[in-house]
Amino acid sequence: MADRQVTASGKDKDGDITKLCKSGEAWSPRQKTDAIRDIENGTHTYYVQQAGTSRVNITVVNGTTGKYLRSTADKSSSNNLDNLPDC
After folding, report:
1. pTM for the complete prediction?
2. What is the DSSP string of the chain?
3. Is 80 a residue whose pLDDT tops 90?
């Protein structure tokens, strides 16, 4: 199992997360469906850790319109998937 740091995220026109990214990594970009499968199967973990913030894991959430990715809530908004640079 690999522990993968995410530094950017892809978003669609509605702002929904479509992919996870880290420049220079062979796995990047990782499409949302593949990242969800990785997390649920325990194949890989994904996390965000910005300078000056603690590490937050990315989890799978079962929403009303299906599964989506979300970073664990903490006191910082800079490590939220929505607030990461686009990839």
Report:
1. 0.89
2. -EEEE--EEEE-TT--EEEEE-TT-TT-SEEHHHHHHHHHHTSEEEEE--TTS--EEEEEEEETTEEEEEEPP-S-STTSGGGSPB-
3. no
